[in-house]
Write a structure and sequence with these properties.
mainly alpha
Length: about 170
Amino acid sequence: MTKKWIPNLLTIINLFAGVVAIMLSFGGKWLLAAGLIMGAALFDSLDGRIARRLNATSEFGKELDSLADLVSFGVAPATIAYLMHFTGIGWSGYILAALFPVCGALRLARFNLANIRGYFLGLPITGAGSLLAVFSVIGQGIPVAVHSLVVIVLSGLMVSTIKVPKI
């Protein structure tokens, strides 16, 4: 295995964590699922840095990273939120749960096409998904209207043109 695959392996670990988080959500293991999303965020933060350090960046890695991010920080947190808070509200729950990863996909597509340095345009899906997962788990007992508002606001922030500084 050449050094060029090291960043992609980290991205694959991110993706694996997101897929397992979805499966754990269906089993009601909310804390573990949210923990895996946070772990995915760690690997997501490492893959790009290591790719640049090893001079191993590639278009393949960029696309794989976006796909992994959509699963780990779009679909997985939306699944947690839906199963924990939105199953009893009918079509509104489906729409809320679908809105989040759809906005995340739009944000990722825009990011892949833009060549912006020094800041992000809109809230990155990694941050939005991590926030949604954690809020869903620690916010048990909070009214569904608040959870709905959180999903709508985070979704809107991802597709917004607000400049978010890179940390």
